[in-house]
Amino acid sequence: MNWDQVHGNWKQMGAVLQKKWGKLTGNDLAVANGDRNLLLGRLEERYGLEREEAERELNEFVGAQEEGAGPYDKEEVATEGAPVDMKTLKIGMHGGGSGAER
Question: Most buried of 16, 44, 73, 75, CB within 10 angstroms?
Fold first, then answer.
């Protein structure tokens, strides 16, 4: 995934970004509004990161979205207009795929 794709799916990516970086607020994401530099600034502020470290972490995160790696893969993010299956519905109702049936 590249940054244009992140920006184009900003509403959906916001939830994934907050899952990864829990100190980011809804306001942080609203202010950034898909702007990479503003998001980097918020990561620096909230986590006390140097610019290079924030860039490295964000680049790794965005790259992982393409590969579907890690707990933040794109399957967990519903997209507007996409069909909802039982797996997606369960994720939305129970806050994630813990593997335990409820």
Answer: 16
Residue 56, pLDDT above cutoff 90? yes
* E-strand stretches of 1-102: none
Compute CA 60 distance to the chain's CA centroid, rounded to the nearest angstrom: 12
Run of H or E residues at 59 = helix 51-67
pTM recorded for the entire structure:
0.64
CATH of the domain at 65: 1.10.1470.10
100 domain residue, yes or no: no
Determine, yes or no, domain membership for 62. Answer: yes
Q: Which helix (H) or strand (E) holds 37?
A: helix 36-47
Q: Is residue 39 part of a domain?
A: yes
